Amino acid sequence: MRLRMLQTSAWTEAKLFLREPMTVAFTLALPLLFLFVLGGVFGNKPSPKVYGGHGPLDFYVPAYIGLVWASVGLLALPVHLARYREDGVLRRLRASAAPRWAVFGSQAIVAAAIALAGGALVIAAAALTYHIHAPRSPAGVLAAWLLAGVVFAALGILLSCIPTSRGALSAGLGLFFVMMMLSGAGPPFEVMTGVMRHVSDILPLTYVTRILQAPWLGTALAWRDVAVAVAITLAAAAATRFAFRWE
Amino acid sequence: MRCGLSRSAGVEMKGTVVEPVIVVDGLTKRYGGTAVVDGVCFEVGRGEIFGILGRNGAGKTTTVECVQGLRRADGGRMRVLGLDPATQAAELRKRIGSQLQESALPQRIKVWEALRWFASFVPGARDPRQLMAQWGLADKANTHFSELSGGQRQRLFIALALVNDPELVFLDEMTTGLDPAARHTAWDLVRAVRDAGTSVVLVTHFMEEAERLCDRVAVLERGTIVALGTPGALIAEHTRQITVRFSADAGDLGWLAGVAGVDQVARRNGSVEVRGTGPVLAEVAAVLVGHGIRPADLRVDQPNLEDVFLSITGRRSDE
Q1: What are the domain boundaries of chain A?
Q2: CB–CB contact A88 B160 (8 Å)
Q3: Residues A199-225: tens digit of each pLDDT
Q4: Mean pLDDT of the A32-49 span
Q5: What predicted TM-score, i.e. pTM, was given to this entire model?
Q6: HSE-up of A57 (CA within 13 Å, CB side)?
Q7: Measured distance CA(A14)–CA(A10) in Å, rounded
Q8: Cβ-defined contact of B70 to A9 (cutoff 8 Å)
Q9: What is d(CA A18, CA B221) in angstroms, rounded to the nearest whole number?
Q10: Which residues in chain A touch residue B121, judged by CB atoms under 8 angstroms apart?
């Protein structure tokens, strides 16, 4: 029964997502665009000065996988939920027999499916064109990817507390572009100025990117990064409990 | 303010006592210090169609939203299907259906998808195809919500309210946006829903709808119930005067004023209007015949709920 409820809800939500071509294009195409622009500029030849001695694309691909999650969590999810509130869909769902976990659970499933598709596209494109190295620890990458999902799902639902979809979109876009430039998907940390480094240090995607890169590149995972990611998630969930409105 | 309904034995309906599905005792809801619902008490019996009547802003919607656990009451006691809506809302919503004002569906969801989605929330839900056929949506099954007309959306919302086969259904201004034919169909369907065992709470500002459909009604004015009873009893109680009309060009009819029960006689462009109480139609007819006057169009204007509303609140229901 519960499984069927979640299945039907998630499948319905998935179809609704696919009927929004702008969101689909933005979420799936932007990381690919990045891949080809930066790949075209740097290729995948390792340089000892930047990227910790790794090939630029070996370094960037896990960052782009994180970027897909950021775009799902900061843009697709909050705008969708805020529009539901604006239109009265949340009000209708709340009055129905739908339990809360099914409402949010189906959103999370669809978000994960989109992020999975986006991440797979990035990996496939990078593997085909630039012959990137396979991840050192696939299981570690999977675990990191799931953690990234939890972080951005929590941030997305928190952003959806902004009353209007227009407000949620503005806030989401602002956060997304700053993170896109300064969290590891843009210029490498080594070439950033002091101010950029300080900003980078307070961005959730910075931690998510490092957590994804460690198992991918086979470098040591900083448990401090994991602790920060978990703390961000808990803080976002607590704030959501306080701020979320159904109408 | 309480009414002591919490220990109620039941609700009398057509001579028999039925178990209450809703007991509301002293419900109060304030917004910023102003009470929009103030000490409301009523019961709804199983199998009843209960109307909550009033103008816009009288507190009807707030009342039913509190009863459904969608808003938290500031005072009073409530029991709905034996549950407390404030603390057992999740359990309650599986057993009730709800057609809300100002709610919507995702723009690009199709009619059948919406019904199947809402059907998945409870075990033993009704077949979406059957509901679509009943509510005239079968040929719209693949239409997006955003492309439905106002009347089609309204019928979809009613169908969604019934999809979990509820024991109790709340219909808030259900015929808004429906044309007269669709409105009559909707009334027939609501009667059928009740006959199948579902109790109905009907919120409306449309008096004809309440009079045709409801077993009992509560009239709400400024957050309090100002009248409660069957439409027939309310009409008998609040509108004592009956108006008898007929055409006559005969001269002086002043003697009609002396007929038992007649309060007032007026003439308007060849038509005579007699106001009175009791069996005034029969009395007037008898006297007319006695005077050799046999009008072909002798008729009586029966008072209706709109007259009750006017008499109690001093204003029309759609003002």
Answers
A1: 2-243
A2: no
A3: 999 999 999 999 999 999 999 999 999
A4: 81
A5: 0.85
A6: 27
A7: 6
A8: no
A9: 48
A10: 5, 96-99, 102
Strand order through the sheet with B299-301: B262-268, B271-276, B242-247, B299-301
Q: How far apart are the first and last CA of chain B?
A: 29
Structure tokens at B160: 């969604």
State mean pLDDT over B180-205. 91
* Residue (of B304, B121, B197) closest to A95 by Cα position: B121
Which residues of chain B does A17 touch, with a Cβ-Cβ cutoff of 8 Å? none
Between helix A194-201 and helix A165-182 the angle, nearest 10°, is 130
Asked whether the beta carbons of residue A102 and residue B103 sit closer than 8 angstroms, the reply is no
- The residue type found at B202 is L
Contact B227, B51 (CB under 8 A): no
pLDDT above 90 for B295: no
Question: Residue B144 has what DSSP assignment?
Answer: B
Separation in Å, CA of B152 to nearest CA in chain A: 17
pLDDT (tens digit, 9 = 90+) per residue, B84-95? Answer: 999 999 999 999
What structural domains and CATH numbers belong to chain B? Answer: 5-230 (3.40.50.300), 240-302 (3.30.70.980)
Residues in A touching B106 (Cβ below 8 Å): 16, 84, 87, 89
In chain A, what's the furthest Cα-to-Cα distance? 60
Specify the length of chain B in residues: 319
Q: What phi and psi values does residue B223 have, to the nearest 5 degrees?
A: 80, 0
* Surface of A (28-87) touching B: CB under 8 A: 84, 87
Nearest to A16 among B103, B108, B118 (CB): B108
Q: How far apart are CA B203 and CA B209, in angstroms?
A: 10
pLDDT for the residue A236: 96
